[in-house]
Amino acid sequence: MANSSNSDSTQTINTTLPNSTMNPFSSFTSVVNIKLDRTNYPLWLAQILPILRSRDLMGYVDGTIVCPSQQLSGSTTTNPAYTTWVQYDQMILSWINGSLTPSVLSVVASKRTSRATWEALEQRYASTSQNRILFLRNELLQTKKGDLLVADYLDKMNAISDNLALAGKPVGT
């Protein structure tokens, strides 16, 4: 996730591509076991962040690796750095989209970059808006054990609690 609380008035933007000995395009789907749905953003995030960080690709989704210009300066020749950036970005976008349930994918299907998709997911599922917090608190209060197994009930309550913590309002505050 992007860090929006930057105390410096200047920000360094990285335009270099990852320089990793690991192939950043190696298989991704076998590592993400839980697809993002409307209720499990913290679990999904816990899977995808280490993958992006380990491949030195977080800059694409947090905006610190910006897209280079399409043409070389003063020329109509395509900038090879642009081509490479687009390849990396589209692979990340493919990974992210492949880790979403159909209902969540429908929300971000129109996004064309990994960053735009990432921001849309953050805004929707990690929102600190009062409406989202009230919704989650109400869900926590209204959730009943009913026919659920104790373990399933506790898992559901913990998931709601995790979402509240992600929204900046952990249970008990």
Question: What does it look like?
Answer:
The protein has two domains: 41-125, no CATH class; 130-166, no CATH class. The radius of gyration is 19 Å and the shape is elongated. The longest helix is centred in the middle third of the chain and has 19 residues, at 80-98. By secondary structure, the protein is mostly helical. It has seven helices and no strands. α6 (130-142) packs antiparallel against α7. Residues 1-16 have low confidence and may be disordered.
The main pleated sheet reads as: none
Estimated helix fraction: 40-55%
Please identify the oligomeric state: single chain
Number of domains: 2
Shape: elongated
Estimated structural class: mainly alpha
Low-confidence stretches: 1-16
| Computed Rg | 19 Å
What distance lies between the first and last C-alpha atoms, to the nearest angstrom?
24 Å
Proportion of residues in extended strands: under 5%
SSE arrangement, N to C: HHHHHHH
Number of helices: 7
Number-wise, the strands total: 0
Mean pLDDT: 82
